[in-house]
Write a structure and sequence with these properties.
By secondary structure, this protein is an alpha+beta fold. Helices cover 16% and strands 33% of the residues.
């Protein structure tokens, strides 16, 4: 995880650990993970994800769905909207 003193590589702002929601699509499924600790630039909002965290989220998306609560999300195809 980015340390508090690591500057953002895009704008130079301070990167702090924040808990965010991460949407992940894998093998045709979409999973949302809440309260994920990631580095977030306080100036531009760029997120920094540690590699091991991304690997863990991918494994959970593939195998940990039985623990998830299911939420219906309305989905629109923008190309079919007048």
């Amino acid at each position: 995880m980015a340390k508090k003193s690591d500057p953002c590589e895009y704008c130079g702002g301070e990167v702090r650990t924040r808990r965010v929601t991460v949407d992940l699509r894998q093998k045709g499924r979409r999973c949302a993970f809440e309260n994920v600790p990631v580095g977030v630039c306080v100036r531009c909002g760029e997120r920094y994800y540690p590699g091991p965290l991304l690997e863990r989220l991918a494994a959970l998306a593939e195998h940990g769905v039985e623990r998830a609560r299911m939420v219906r999300v309305p989905t629109l195809d923008y190309s079919k909207i007048d």
